[in-house]
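A protein record in our archive is deliberately plain, so that people and models can read it alike. The record that follows is passed on verbatim for readers who wish to inspect the format.
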Amino acid sequence: MADKTISLRIPELGFIAGTRGALGAGLGLLLADKLTHRQQKKLGWTLLAIGAATTVPILINVIGKARRSMRLAA
């Protein structure tokens, strides 16, 4: 399968991140009364870890693109 490249602007990336956050928060609210406090805590930490782990590579990519474009403009 061929690799595809998609360019995103910072506001678009922010929108994607915001919607992911809203999705996670909504899921948490829907499940809140169905889980014990211990289960809620485990789920919360797991979602936080997944969110952080998937966001860091995106940020690194965006920062790298920004630096490269600044070097090319100079």
Residues 37-73 form the longest helix (37 residues). The chain has a mean pLDDT of 78. Residues 34 and 41 are 13 Å apart (CA to CA). Residues 36-74 form one domain.
